[in-house]
DNA sequence: AAACGGACCAACCGCTCACAG
DNA sequence: ACTGTGAGCGGTTGGTCCGTT
């Protein structure tokens, strides 16, 4: 829509956040909660765009963030959820308390993908790579009948069994399309394509893969309730191969505010958490204020601060945003 | 010790969606 | 119905660190 990117605006800082900026943002959000992100920089005295502030809060300053290594359970859960949801990191993150979509995405791209590949599992399909190759070959062999090879002229496009893979190549249709259920239906039926797109997401995942728990959107408290039994036991697999799972999940910098040696100390700020009265797994949000809570999803923190702030601060918050 | 390359991760960018006017 | 704006999401980039040569 021709909207200006926040980076285009003048005088706005970019890049890494300084401890002072963190402190300003944290103090402001802690005191007034989250209202309108675009107004936060101005009100907090930051030379940043609102988008940048939002990201910094969500990915780094949020008091409930879990830091450090991903546990084995978390890794298993990410793999399971990725199998079901694909690259929907935000949805995956809602099932991992204290983890951000960005963190999970980075972890997936930098570590889990490689581990799965190492184990001979295609990280995109979650299928064993050799199995896929075998399947492809089998499909190819099945589809190439002598009759078809002898066919002159165009194949019957309305009968997918009349089309072999060579035909697809000639028509510049990606061979990947041949995997899955596509062959079971009329490939060129536009209505079918539409149906296909709605039933299978961009990563090729069908919602049918979703477990009952996921469909119902119930928060997963116990990873074991998520069908790990049917998962490849990556723990034993890797440990048997003397692979340390934690190596990739360890944060080199540990991203601990204390380590910044700055004026801002999470340990010292822990007391602030009591203000929030927020418990993730048990999902305990104290008296949410209708109208102030933008989103009560477990992974969204836009509103919980305000619901638990002292009354005078809530009032202050409203005042602040009414000034705009 | 210096150069190089890979790994990691914070942050940015561009897009879509929802909603208000 | 249309338009503008803000929020949220996923992909990508760029800086930093660390191990290797």
Automatic annotation (TrEMBL):
UniProt-listed InterPro entries: Homeodomain-like_sf (IPR009057), Myb_dom (IPR017930), Plant_SW-associated_TFs (IPR051953), SANT/Myb (IPR001005)
Name recorded for this polypeptide: Myb domain protein 86
Gene Ontology molecular function terms on file: transcription cis-regulatory region binding
Domain HTH myb-type: 9-61, 62-116
Localisation per UniProt entry: Nucleus
Domain Myb-like: 9-61, 62-112
Record-linked Pfam families: Myb_DNA-binding
GO CC annotations, alphabetized: nucleus
Keywords of the record: DNA-binding, Nucleus, Repeat, Transcription, Transcription regulation
UniProt lineage: Eukaryota, Viridiplantae, Streptophyta, Embryophyta, Tracheophyta
Superkingdom per UniProt: Eukaryota
Transmembrane segments: none
């Amino acid at each position: 829509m021709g909207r200006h990117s926040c980076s285009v605006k003048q005088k706005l800082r970019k890049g890494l956040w300084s401890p002072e900026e963190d402190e300003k943002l944290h103090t402001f959000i802690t005191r007034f909660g989250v209202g309108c992100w675009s107004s936060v920089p101005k009100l907090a005295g930051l030379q940043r765009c609102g988008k940048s502030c939002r990201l910094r809060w969500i990915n780094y300053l949020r008091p409930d963030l879990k830091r450090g290594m991903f546990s084995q359970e978390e890794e298993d859960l990410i793999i399971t959820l990725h199998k079901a949801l694909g690259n929907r990191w935000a949805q995956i993150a809602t099932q991992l308390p204290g983890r951000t979509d960005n963190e999970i995405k980075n972890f997936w791209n930098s570590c889990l993908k490689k581990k799965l590949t190492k184990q001979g599992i295609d990280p995109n399909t979650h299928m064993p790579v050799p199995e896929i190759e075998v399947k492809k070959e089998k499909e190819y062999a099945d589809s190439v009948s002598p009759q078809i090879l002898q066919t002159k002229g165009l194949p019957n496009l309305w009968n997918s069994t009349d089309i072999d893979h060579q035909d697809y190549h000639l028509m510049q249709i990606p061979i990947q399309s041949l995997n899955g259920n596509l062959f079971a239906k009329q490939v060129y039926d536009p209505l079918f394509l539409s149906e296909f797109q709605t039933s299978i997401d961009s990563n090729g995942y069908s919602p049918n893969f979703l477990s009952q728990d996921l469909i119902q959107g119930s928060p997963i408290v116990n990873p074991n309730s998520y069908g790990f039994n049917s998962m490849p036991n990556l723990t034993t697999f890797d440990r048997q191969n003397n692979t340390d799972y934690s190596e990739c999940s360890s944060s080199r910098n540990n991203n601990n505010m204390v380590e910044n040696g700055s004026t801002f100390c999470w340990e010292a700020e822990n007391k602030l958490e009591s203000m929030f009265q927020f418990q993730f797994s048990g999902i305990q949000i104290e008296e949410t204020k209708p109208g102030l809570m933008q989103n009560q999803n477990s992974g969204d923190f836009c509103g919980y601060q305000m619901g638990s702030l002292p009354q005078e601060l809530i009032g202050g918050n409203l005042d602040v945003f009414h000034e705009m």
